[in-house]
Amino acid sequence: xxxxxxxxxLCTAALTASLCACLQGCPLLVVGAAGxxxxxxxxxxxxxxxxxxxxxxxxxxxTFIGDMPxxxxxxxxxxxxxxxLTGEVPTEGDKRKAEAIVRNIDNVHGIINELTIGPxxxxxxxxxxxxxxxxxxxxxxxxxxxxxxxxxxxxxGGKVYLMGLVTQSEGDKGADAASRVTGVVQxxxxxxxxxxxxxxxxxxxxxxxxAASGAPATAAPTDxxxxxxxxxxxxVTTGAVPDSGVTSQSIDSQAPAPVKNASPVQPGNPNKAVx
Length: 275
What we know:
Elements: H1 2-22, E1 30-31, E2 42-43, H2 47-67, E3 73-79, E4 82-89, H3 92-103, E5 108-113, E6 116-117, H4 123-141, E7 151-156, E8 159-166, H5 168-179, E9 186-193, H6 196-203, H7 208-214, E10 216-222, E11 225-230, E12 238-239, E13 259-261, E14 266-269
Parallel strand pairs: 1-3, 4-5, 4-6, 8-9, 9-13
Antiparallel strand pairs: 2-12, 3-4, 5-14, 7-8, 9-10, 10-11
């Protein structure tokens, strides 16, 4: 069972790298799927949240294409009405403009602006990032007693961003596993923390609206300062029940890369009522 799962995970990495090669010449704006990119089993978001994420993604994509510089390279990842911005833009003003554009989109509950100032990454760099993402997913998949499907993985310049609706223990273990994958230069935690009881309830298909819309949850603290925010302002991903047949096994390891928390969540524009 373990060998089969490991083979599938590594095949995913190869397929992703091949796909990147086919995409050479595409626009520099990249919009991450609202529900894609994670190893999907059960979605912990409410149906309303999933619908809103797709709408936010489409609106962000169309607005960025028309309003942002052609030499900007931006990745947009949307989960549970929360938008993570990564990539490169020419100036600090462009970084602020991108955040302002997202803030003007209805029902965005939070923005994490991790854009950097500089030239766009090369095609080879983006291909490497895609491969690292696949390796991190494979590492999480083979980690014993850890539901890899609880994590959304985004890689930019070798820096891995982990989003998810996880317990503190799951988040720490997932970040540690990702930090040991060869090529990862840093791991950034963009988690929404929930209690073990809530994690079990949601994994079994419990009240998704409570987690996605109103139940309080502890967000990842920003560099040592604990913070508590509403659950609707935090990232959320998919869930799965860990397979006891999967053993802890390093696929491609290095000494642990640094792990940090994401930039503070900035306010969005939650104009619409949560569904």
